[in-house]
Amino acid sequence: MNITPLVWGVTILITVAFFVYEFFAHVRKPHEPTIAESARWSVFYISLALLFGVGIGVVSGWTYGGEYFAGYLTEKALSIDNLFVFLIVMTGFAVPKIYQQKVLMIGIVIALIMRGVFIALGAALIESGAWVFYLFGALLLALAYRQAFSHGESDPTDSWFVRSVRRVLPVTDEYHGDKLTVKKNGKRWVTPMLLTIVAIGFIDLVFAFDSIPAIYGLTSEAYIVFTANAFALMGLRQLYFLVGGLLERLVYLAQGLAVILAFIGVKLVLHAMHVNEVPFINGGEPILWAPEIPIWFSLMFIGLTIAVATAASLLKTRANGRRSGAPIASSADGAHEEVSMRD
Fold first, then answer.
1. Which of 87, 170, 229, 329 has the maximum number of C-beta atoms within 10 A of its C-beta?
2. Contact 198/38 with Cβ under 8 angstroms?
3. pLDDT tens digit string along 253-298?
4. CA end-to-end span of the chain, whole Å?
5. What does the pLDDT average to over 289-311?
6. Is residue 268 within 8 Å of residue 136, measured between CB atoms?
7. How does DSSP assign 106-144, residue by residue?
């Protein structure tokens, strides 16, 4: 793809404009979005993302269009996993529902900034040689193993990072509206709202390690990586309120994501072998028998994996609900004590 600085500039400006509009139109005044409002905006952002992918296919060719759609699906799935942890954090810090939009908005903006940094670093690494594909592939295989077999006993609200912040900053016991700091007895205190945002920012950094190597396994175009990430994060705030209860029912989401990460990891290693330049592997010569997995197969595999993981999760929770005779949770206010952090 031949993306000029002008196209990059316009794309970034439009992305920023969307988030600015979101803040002033929906987030600035604290309120809990209705299901109808969340559904409308979720459909709008998903439709916009799909139309953008069609545009890439028409303008730049369907190879790039396929890379975008595969990247968007992967990033959307990883973002939903991120959303699950946001739910745990806000439950752990008991964030009032009317202020959750603000926390989500700030968290999503932090996530986009973090991913932007990692996108630039990833592009620079790829330019340095094919060896980086071995590195990314090994990282994704390790992340896939962790995603599949980690039982996630750790609590993101009681991580070493959050405990360190508490030791450094004086934190009030109660919320003061949506304020981040308050002054009490002549001393400046931070509120649990700021602590929640700090926790989510740290989680965004951790998730960037999964996200960016995964999409660079599907495309080497930094523009596609950025736009797929931006569209995956747009509408995530509305999706949180729309499917808050459904998140708790996606019991096989972690395993589905592990399969996707492992697949992309294998794809990266095979690509690294096919274009090998590492001196101590095959004498620095490409390993031509290593197949290149086509993007259409990647797109189908990712889509099918997400569909199977979702269907299996819903069947499992429905069966469990029937056996126990208990109603299946339908809102984000359900029992969270059984929920544990996936990472």
1. 229
2. no
3. 888 888 988 998 898 888 888 878 778 888 888 888 888 888 889 8
4. 35
5. 88
6. yes
7. HHHHHHHHHHHHHHHHHHHHHHT-THHHHHHHHHHHHHH
